[in-house]
Amino acid sequence: MTLRSEVIAMRELEEGEPVGYSGRWRAPRRSRIAVVACGYGDGYDRHARDGTPVLVNGQRCAIAGKVSMDMLTVDVTDVPDAVIGSEVVLWGRASNGVILPVDEVARYCDTISYTLLTGYCPGHRGVIMGVLFKRLVLCRNHVIPAHSPTRVTGLPGSESALCMSPPGCLGD
């Protein structure tokens, strides 16, 4: 299963500038930061710490700062081709074939992969609605509209599905 999103904004930082809630992460050098359309409101683990790996255009990068409700920030200083719209893989297989194992991401979140996967998977509580309903997904008793760029692929019986859990669904 692959969880992917995209870069929705870019920002240049000077050395020492803070990022995220309470400025926990500070740029160790002049840096480029990508804002990614995925956060704890979508079901991504809010405990992901600085350095949690993601793939941007198939290149390994690290989360910089705390995960926000609907976005997270990634240090893309060493990925010169990262631009708005670039593919971001939070776990799974990137378009170029590079794989980021969900187990590795889970270790950075101090949890297990099943916790991350069930935050996005419809499982027995979710229903993927068809095209007639404009691809809404009922997940953990919440309906999420199909306008988010965050996608889950590799689910049985579907090429791509939207399936995100609102805050509180993961028991935090």
UniProtKB/TrEMBL annotation:
<protein>
    <recommendedName>
        <fullName>Alanine racemase C-terminal domain-containing protein</fullName>
    </recommendedName>
</protein>
<feature type="domain" description="Alanine racemase C-terminal">
    <location>
        <begin position="1"/>
        <end position="131"/>
    </location>
</feature>
<dbReference type="Pfam" id="PF00842">
    <property type="entry name" value="Ala_racemase_C"/>
</dbReference>
<dbReference type="GO" id="GO:0030170">
    <property type="term" value="F:pyridoxal phosphate binding"/>
</dbReference>
<dbReference type="GO" id="GO:0005829">
    <property type="term" value="C:cytosol"/>
</dbReference>
<dbReference type="InterPro" id="IPR011079">
    <property type="entry name" value="Ala_racemase_C"/>
</dbReference>
<dbReference type="GO" id="GO:0030632">
    <property type="term" value="P:D-alanine biosynthetic process"/>
</dbReference>
<dbReference type="InterPro" id="IPR009006">
    <property type="entry name" value="Ala_racemase/Decarboxylase_C"/>
</dbReference>
<dbReference type="InterPro" id="IPR000821">
    <property type="entry name" value="Ala_racemase"/>
</dbReference>
<keyword id="KW-0663">Pyridoxal phosphate</keyword>
<dbReference type="GO" id="GO:0008784">
    <property type="term" value="F:alanine racemase activity"/>
</dbReference>
<keyword id="KW-0413">Isomerase</keyword>
